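Tokens in:
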């Protein structure tokens, strides 16, 4: 009996001691700056919009205010309990919907279900015994992130031993997926190329392999000539018709040939345009020297050898108009014609930017009331591409008489007017100018962009640098896939990977916030969408990894396929989906996409892919056949990864 009393007393004693040794810490006492989220910054003891934390009228002294999609990674070895009250902050004005989820070492521990603004806070109380890493996720509940002010209120951890810490996303090693090019030649680039009869023609044959290379071409129209050393084709576009050309490149290591069909007619951009746009590198401080340097880097880095071609200056090149209304470059752009000549001398093409409004988005001189004069000027300088950015035109459109539903509403005709006007003016120039409509998708531009003379159109606002946008944009764009076709491309914005510039005058380029896998996913998704491929990052700090993502010819071939299809989405779950793109040769490009926070095994069954029989499956990033399969194919896909594959019917 005495022994039993002693044991109970000892247990109570040790239990009390252990309990006493357990510490607790508020989540807001940790380093919340490492939290990744879809909008704004996570706040301690405040909502994301910096008002007191309040869920359905209940006020909380402690907690972390985030915005979906937010990810909060915690190291909790030694953790005992996690408790919180979660909900949509009242600051979201009864709008927004969020789903809160807690994962422990990759396993789901708890989920709130869909919570709307105004719902009462839901309690979380979790035992953390044996768990090392915790992920607190506030997801968008499947309807986008608008007003998703997600509060982890009263969030507290009890622990014994090591103090919990917010860690940021799991570290990832930057593995190079694209194999290094071999010394023997490999002619790349589109299989079809559109031009208008009688206009100047310029095409640099994209080709990898050790230089010097010797180029030749059979079937080239008589009005064109090829420089055998540089591989640059110049001259005048031939008469209307299809010209089947075979391009060839040789060096001591071998020879490569590629069909190239020149289609002289009304259409340009028969495959999505590829190039560089300076905005996310140099912003308002861009100079003529930056653009020339970008052209040089496009050649020296090998980007032009896989098809990058346009060197496009964005906003802020323009100065003032003279008395006759002629526009010139500003002090940083002393001679626009000389800049275009410099770019052309390398076999590349030059692009520029303006707005149909009186001012551009960065308040420089726009084209309003000078449309014909500017179109002529851009062609005379020798530019090959125009981005036409809505910006200050909104005021004019709202005041236009075209609107039937009051002065503030903009009618479809008013949306179209400036683009129709410029489209027709560009068409009248004796140059091929690719026309990019930048008006963020207003009036469902994908339905009419081609009718007003556009070759590609932004489908949404600026992409920004938040990572969940990538998958969301791909899913959104797939809804417009019916309008994607040769000469008419949905444009989800630039490829913003590698080092990006800082908008501030003194800002140094810094690494983009995406993990290596996310950067590969970016490129995979853009190619599956048949999107224009414009790199917009710093060209002075292009590193091996970024070039590896940008320059895989088998991946780019998916984007440049002559059929011009944008991938369809299938098997959509909250975190995974497949993208399927029909290719001109009867094969299919397929993306196994994992938006989720943990690796998953993804399966593509033939019934979903529209396939039958035996299929040879190729991993396009690694340029490696994975074998011949029947019925289905399955692969592990990393967190935020896209496995990009091509399925060829086995004969
Ligand atoms: C808008 C466009 C961007 C860029 C800037 C320039 O935001 O969407 O792509 O051109 O204007 O001011």
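Residues out:
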């Amino acid at each position: 009996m005495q022994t039993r009393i002693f044991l109970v007393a000892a247990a109570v004693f040790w239990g009390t001691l252990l309990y006493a040794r357990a510490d607790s810490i508020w989540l807001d006492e940790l380093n919340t700056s490492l939290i990744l989220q879809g909008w704004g910054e996570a706040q301690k003891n405040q909502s994301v919009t910096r008002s007191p934390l309040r869920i359905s009228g209940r006020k909380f002294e402690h907690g972390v205010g985030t915005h979906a999609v937010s990810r909060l990674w915690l190291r909790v070895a030694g953790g005992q309990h996690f408790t919180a009250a979660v909900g949509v902050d009242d600051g979201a004005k009864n709008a927004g919907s969020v789903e809160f989820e807690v994962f422990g070492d990759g396993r789901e521990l708890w989920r709130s279900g869909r919570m709307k603004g105004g719902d009462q806070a839901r309690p979380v109380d979790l035992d953390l015994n044996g768990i090392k890493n915790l992920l607190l996720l506030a997801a968008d509940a499947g309807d986008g992130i608008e007003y998703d002010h997600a509060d982890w209120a009263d969030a507290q951890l009890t622990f014994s031993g090591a103090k919990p810490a917010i860690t940021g996303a799991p570290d990832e090693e930057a593995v190079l997926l694209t194999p290094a090019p071999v010394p023997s030649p490999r002619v790349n680039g589109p299989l079809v190329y559109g031009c208008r009869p009688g206009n100047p023609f310029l095409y640099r044959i994209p080709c990898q392999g050790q230089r010097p290379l010797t180029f030749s071409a059979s079937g080239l129209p008589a009005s064109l000539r090829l420089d055998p050393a540089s591989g640059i084709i110049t001259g005048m576009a031939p008469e209307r018709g299809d010209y089947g050309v075979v391009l060839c490149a040789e060096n001591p290591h071998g020879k490569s040939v590629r069909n190239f069909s020149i289609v002289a007619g009304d259409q340009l951009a028969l495959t999505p345009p590829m190039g560089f746009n300076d905005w996310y590198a140099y912003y308002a401080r861009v100079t003529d020297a930056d653009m020339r340097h970008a052209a040089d880097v496009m050649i020296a880095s090998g980007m032009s050898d896989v098809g990058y071609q346009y060197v496009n200056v964005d906003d802020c090149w323009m100065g003032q108009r003279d008395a006759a209304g002629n526009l010139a470059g500003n002090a940083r752009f002393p001679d626009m014609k000389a800049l275009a000549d410099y770019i052309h001398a390398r076999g590349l093409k030059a692009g520029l930017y303006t707005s149909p409004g009186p001012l551009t988005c960065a308040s420089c001189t726009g084209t309003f009331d000078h449309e014909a004069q500017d179109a002529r000027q851009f062609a005379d300088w020798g530019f090959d591409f125009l981005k036409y950015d809505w910006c200050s035109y909104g005021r004019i459109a709202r005041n236009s008489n075209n609107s039937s539903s009051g002065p503030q509403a903009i009618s479809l005709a008013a949306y179209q007017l400036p683009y129709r006007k410029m489209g027709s003016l560009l068409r009248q120039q004796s140059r091929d100018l690719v026309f990019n409509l930048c008006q963020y998708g207003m009036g469902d531009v994908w339905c009419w962009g081609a009718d007003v003379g556009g070759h590609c159109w932004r489908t949404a606002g600026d992409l920004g640098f938040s990572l969940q946008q990538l998958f969301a944009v791909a899913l959104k764009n797939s809804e417009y896939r019916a309008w994607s076709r040769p000469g008419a491309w949905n444009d989800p914005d630039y490829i913003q990977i590698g080092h990006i510039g800082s908008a501030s005058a003194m800002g140094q380029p810094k690494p983009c916030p995406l993990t290596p896998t996310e950067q590969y996913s970016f490129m995979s998704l853009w190619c599956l969408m048949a999107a224009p491929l414009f790199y917009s990052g710093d060209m002075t700090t292009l590193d091996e990894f970024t070039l590896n993502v940008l320059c895989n010819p088998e991946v780019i071939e998916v984007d440049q396929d002559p059929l011009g299809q944008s991938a369809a989405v299938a098997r959509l779950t909250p975190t995974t989906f497949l993208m399927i793109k029909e290719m001109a040769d009867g094969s299919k490009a397929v993306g196994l996409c994992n938006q989720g926070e943990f690796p998953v095994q993804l399966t593509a069954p033939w019934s979903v892919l529209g396939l039958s029989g035996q299929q040879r499956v190729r991993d396009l990033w690694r340029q490696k056949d994975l074998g011949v399969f029947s019925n289905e194919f399955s692969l592990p896909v990393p967190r935020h990864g896209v496995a990009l594959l091509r399925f060829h019917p086995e004969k």
